[in-house]
Fold this sequence. Notes:
The protein is α/β, with parallel strands linked by helices and about 475 residues long.
Amino acid sequence: xxxxxxxxxxxxxxxxxxxxxxxxxxxxxxxxxxxxxxxxxxxxxxxxxxxxxxxxxxxxxxxxxxxxxxxxxxxxxxxxxxxxxxxxxxxxxxxxxxxxxxxxxxxxxxxxxxxxxxxxxxxxxxxxxxxxxxxxxxxxxxxxxxxxxxxxxxxxxxxxxxxxxxxxxxxxxxxxxxxxxxxxxxxxxxxxxxxxxxxxxxxxxxxxxxxxxxxxxxxxxxxxxxxxxxxxxxxxxxxxxxxxxxxxxxxxxxxxxxxxxxxxxxxxxxxxxxxxxxxxxxxxxxxxxxxxxxxxxxxxxxxxxxxxxxxxxxxxxxxxxxxxxxxxxxxxxxxxxxxxxxxxxxxxxxxxxxxxxxxxxxxxxxxxxxxxxxxxxxxxxxxxxxxxxxxxxxxxxxxxxxxxxxxxxxxxxxxxxxxxxxxxxxxxxxxxxxxxxxxxxxxxxxxxxxxxxxxxxxxxxxxxxxxxxxxxxxxxx
Length: 477
Ligand code: NAD
C-alpha cells in the first residue's frame, strides 16, 4: 500500500495520524495519507510566510523558468499520474491522463504570464506629481480544491498564485490526496525554493479552515467546491478581511434552438454531460430543446449515452467510471426517482451497478419544478425539457436564468443575432456557443450568483492574486 506525506517547508512530513484513500470502483483502500492537524497547518503557513520575501523578489523570468520545469515534469508523467488519479477518483485512464496534460498547460500558461504582470502609470492632475500603480503579490495564499478534477483544480490555482509572486499552502480534497502528492513531487523536483509551495493533506478540513482563518499572514483564500462550504468560508473570512476567490456549484442550462445543428448539439451535450460521470461544475443540468427538434435530439443523445462503456476506469475500453462515493450515488438515484414520480420518462435502458457505477441516463418530459432542475445532480443524468413556438426566446432564457447558480450555460443556434442576444441575457459567468470549449488556460473561468466570484485562467486569473499599490509621488517643485 502506498503512503502519502505532507510537504511543509520543502520537507516531506508524516503526521501523527493517517487517513485511508479508497478506489471508488472497488471500494478498496489503496493508500494511507498524512492526516495533518491544525498545528502542522500553522507550520506550513510559517514556511510560506518565510519563503514569501525571496520568492516575490526573484526576477520574473527565474520564477517562470521553475514553473515551466514543473509543467514539463507534470506533462512528462501524465500517464503515471493519470493512473494514480483513476485509482482514487474513478475517471477513465484516458480522461485522467488528459486532465494531467491540461493541468500542466495551466501551469505553463501561468509561467509565461509571470513576465507580464505589469503595473501602470496614470496621468496626474499636476505637473508636480506622478501616479504609479505597482503590482504586488497578495501574500500567502491558502488553496482548497475538490476531488472531481484532482490535478487541474490545483494547477489552475497554483499557476496564477505563483506567477503573481505569492506563496501557497494547498489543501486538496481528502478523497483525492494522492494526485496532489504527485503534483507536489513535480514541483519539488522542478526546484521551487522550500516553503513556496506547501501541501497539507488532511481528513479534517474544518481544522485546516480554522487554522488559516485565525492566521493574519494568510491574505487570500482560493476555494473550489460546494456552495455550502464556500458560503461558510466567506463568513469565516470576514473577521480578518481576507481576499477570497470562490468557484462553487453550478446548474448549467443548455438551450437548443430549432435552427441548431441537432446532431452536433446532441454530441456536445453528451460530451459535457457524461464526462467524469457528470461530476463537473459545468455539467448540463437542464437541457431545453425546442419541441420541433426534441425527438431527433433525444434519439441522438440516447444513442450516444448507450454507446458509453461503464466500468472501472482502469480497465481498457471503459469510457465512464463510477461515482465518487455512496452519497453521490444516492443523490443521483433520488433525483431520478423524483423526476419519474412527477411524470418524467426514462429514455435510456435502466441498468444498475454494480457498486458505484451508474449508467448514463436520459430523461424526457422533465419540468422545471422537479428536484433535479433545482439541485445540482453531479451525476450522469441528462434531463430534457422542451419549449415551443408559443414561448419567446426571452421566456426560455428566463427559465434558464431561474436558478441561484450562475456558472456555465450552453447555447446551440446558427442565428447570429440570437447568439448575441442570448449571450447578453444569460446570467452566467461562462457561455459556450455551439460546443466551444470552456476551460482553456487563457480563458477567465468563473461564475456569478451562487456559483461564486473570482476568475481562474487568463490574465484575469493572475490579477486575482495581485494587489495594485497606488503610489502618488510629489516632486517637491
Ligand atoms: P466540498 O465543498 O465538499 O469540498 C471541496 C473542498 O473543501 C475539499 O478540499 C474539502 O475537504 C474542503 N472542505 C470541506 N468542508 C470544509 C470546511 N468546513 N472548511 C474548509 N474546507 C472544507 O466539494 P466537493 O464535493 O469536493 O466538490 C464538488 C463541488 O464543487 C460541486 O458543488 C461542484 O459544482 C463544485 N465545483 C465547482 C467548480 C467551479 O469551478 N465552480 C469546479 C469544480 C467543482
